[in-house]
From TrEMBL:
<dbReference type="GO" id="GO:0098796">
    <property type="term" value="C:membrane protein complex"/>
</dbReference>
<dbReference type="Pfam" id="PF00005">
    <property type="entry name" value="ABC_tran"/>
</dbReference>
<keyword id="KW-0067">ATP-binding</keyword>
<dbReference type="InterPro" id="IPR027417">
    <property type="entry name" value="P-loop_NTPase"/>
</dbReference>
<dbReference type="GO" id="GO:0005524">
    <property type="term" value="F:ATP binding"/>
</dbReference>
<dbReference type="InterPro" id="IPR003593">
    <property type="entry name" value="AAA+_ATPase"/>
</dbReference>
<protein>
    <submittedName>
        <fullName>ABC transporter ATP-binding protein</fullName>
    </submittedName>
</protein>
<dbReference type="InterPro" id="IPR003439">
    <property type="entry name" value="ABC_transporter-like_ATP-bd"/>
</dbReference>
<keyword id="KW-1003">Cell membrane</keyword>
<dbReference type="GO" id="GO:0022857">
    <property type="term" value="F:transmembrane transporter activity"/>
</dbReference>
<keyword id="KW-0547">Nucleotide-binding</keyword>
<dbReference type="InterPro" id="IPR017911">
    <property type="entry name" value="MacB-like_ATP-bd"/>
</dbReference>
<keyword id="KW-0997">Cell inner membrane</keyword>
<dbReference type="GO" id="GO:0089705">
    <property type="term" value="P:protein localization to outer membrane"/>
</dbReference>
<feature type="domain" description="ABC transporter">
    <location>
        <begin position="6"/>
        <end position="225"/>
    </location>
</feature>
<dbReference type="InterPro" id="IPR015854">
    <property type="entry name" value="ABC_transpr_LolD-like"/>
</dbReference>
<comment type="similarity">
    <text>Belongs to the ABC transporter superfamily. Macrolide exporter (TC 3.A.1.122) family.</text>
</comment>
Length: 225
């Protein structure tokens, strides 16, 4: 039996409501991602992929509609509750990685674990293992500014997985990567889905990569098809 991990029901989002520059980005988007399922989200630039991911990841709120995470309806929940669910159950890879510039790659992956009560030694071991999976263990002591864009992206991927989320949301996670590295990150993701039941929703412009995921959904005129 498949278990829904992320459910979006009738998500509506309008920016600049009532103003001349009003833009209706989401007009009733529905989506279910099951446990262990990796779904590609494909749409032209500006269609609303980031908006949808931010709402799904509880970083933003919808005007209408419901977001359920692991069966739990998050609509109307307090900020405190939403923050706790986001921290414990959701991993997010931003379009622009948002690594903490004053900390090393390792520290960027250790810190969210410490915030979740994991010990320093366990957190470091996990961070190094994650970095190793995507071929950047030798960059563990580098700060983001001393890494290439692709290396930073891979560190952001590891950070998103640091607290063993149920759901990974990613905004163009392989955008800066060459084909071989992109493949390595992708294979790591698919192995995690297979072995740990991680669910993922991945926005991408890379159609070849999208076709290798379990399912592709397209955003058209503010709905998912
Ligand atoms: N905070 C905001 N205020 C007003 N308009 C916004 C805001 N955020 C996004 N938009 C607009 O909403 C639309 C959807 O933006 P979004 O970033 O979700 O698209 P996207 O599909 O992720 O694009 P890309 O592939 O280029 O990253 C765009 O027209 C954008 O200009």
């Amino acid at each position: 039996m498949s278990k829904p991990m992320l459910e979006l029901h009738g998500i509506v989002k309008t920016y600049n409501r009532g103003k001349p520059n009003e833009i209706k980005v989401l007009r009733g988007a529905d989506l279910t991602v099951d446990q262990g399922e990796v779904v590609a989200l494909v749409a032209p630039s500006g269609a609303g992929k980031s908006t949808l991911l931010h709402i799904a990841g509880l970083l933003d709120t919808a005007d209408q509609g419901q977001v359920l995470i692991n069966g739990q309806d998050m609509s109307g929940k307090s900020d405190r509750k939403r923050t706790a669910v986001r921290r414990d159950e959701v991993g997010f890879i931003y379009q622009f990685h948002h690594l903490l510039p004053e900390f090393s790659a390792l520290e960027n992956i250790v810190l969210p674990q410490l915030a979740n009560g994991v010990s320093q030694s366990v957190a470091e071991r996990r961070a190094l293992e994650l970095l190793g999976n995507v071929g950047v263990a030798d960059r563990a002591d580098h700060r983001p500014a001393a890494m290439s864009g692709g290396e930073q992206q891979r560190v952001a991927f590891c950070r998103a997985l640091a607290n063993e989320p149920l759901i990974l949301l990613a905004d163009e996670p392989t955008g800066n990567l060459d084909p071989a590295t992109s493949d390595q990150v992708f294979e790591t993701l698919m192995a995690l889905a297979r072995d740990t039941g991680l669910s993922a929703l991945i926005a991408t412009h890379n159609m070849e990569l999208a076709a290798r995921m379990d399912r592709v959904v397209r955003m058209e005129n503010g709905v998912l098809v």
